[in-house]
Predict the 3D structure of the following.
Amino acid sequence: MNIVLWVVQVLLALAFIAAGSLKASQSAEKLKKNMGWVEDVNPGSVKLIGILEILGGLGLILPAVTHILPWLTPVAAIGLAIIMVGAVVIHLRRNEMAVLGAPVVLLILSLLIVYGRFALIPLT
């Protein structure tokens, strides 16, 4: 199970760092082409979400690898799960059912890390 958790952590970290990098580095006008929800959100908030996704992605890996405050890994997963709950709410409000799958999957995988690293196989 530890290997499964590590694989999920790495994949989630890559996904959130990639998505966060786009949101943090590109203008709202560029992002609107592929992310319709950006129209409904302040550009500063979009950048903040991107930065939080990058930090959360790093938090899934760095504390566990360095053994420095490893309890931060599941805490980072909690933060990412909260962001994904927000994403699900925004997509539901915009009636964007076609793009709802990705945030739901990321939410479930984040919650798997929370449960796995707090209850099943805590990092020490």
